[in-house]
């Protein structure tokens, strides 16, 4: 399967809403529920740093985005990361390639990005393993950070990378 990584564009909004809703519909897919993924949400994140994995026919299989912190003390930090890969395309290395593109881009930013940080649900072991393979390190744990619709609580694992 071939695909390319490119910057997201405003023309991708509808496909990205569909992608994120599909990813959110599976357990441990995304923190947001499908009904929380709106055009406004997608338009906001693609206005920042966002990359997509696109197949030869133009279908979007995955997306990653993050944002530079706006407080001057933390302006060297890229955070609020989200990566979404369509459930039918998981396990093909798309998430890794999206992260590699995001990290490479972060290294070129001016003023420089020196740190990338994210949080992962403690039960999402596949995502945690991916982040570890990419070079993220465990930095902490937020107890009972997430609350599922059934009332179950889950910790968030805080991870960071210096670049």
Tell me what the structure shows.
The protein is α+β, with helices and mostly antiparallel strands and 163 residues long. 26% of the residues lie in helices and 34% in strands. The protein has one domain (4-162): Gcn5-related N-acetyltransferase (GNAT) (Aminopeptidase), CATH 3.40.630.30. It contains 4 helices and 7 strands, in the order E-H-H-E-E-E-H-E-H-E-E. The chain has a 7-stranded mixed sheet. Helix 3 links the parallel strand 4 (77-85) and strand 5 (115-121). The longest helix has 13 residues, at 94-106. The two termini are 30 Å apart. 28% of the residues are buried.
| Separation of the first and last Cα atoms | 30 Å
Mean of residue pLDDT values: 97
SS content category: alpha+beta
Strand order of the largest sheet: 1-2-3-4-5-7-6
**Low-confidence stretches at least 5 residues in length (pLDDT < 50)?**
none
One letter per element, helices H and strands E, the order comes to EHHEEEHEHEE
Supply the key terms.
163 residues, alpha+beta, seven-stranded mixed beta sheet, 4 helices, 7 strands, 34% strand, globular
Write the layout of secondary structure elements.
Elements: E1 4-7, H1 13-24, H2 39-46, E2 49-54, E3 60-68, E4 77-85, H3 94-106, E5 115-121, H4 125-134, E6 137-147, E7 153-162
Parallel strand pairs: 4-5
Antiparallel strand pairs: 1-2, 2-3, 3-4, 5-7, 6-7
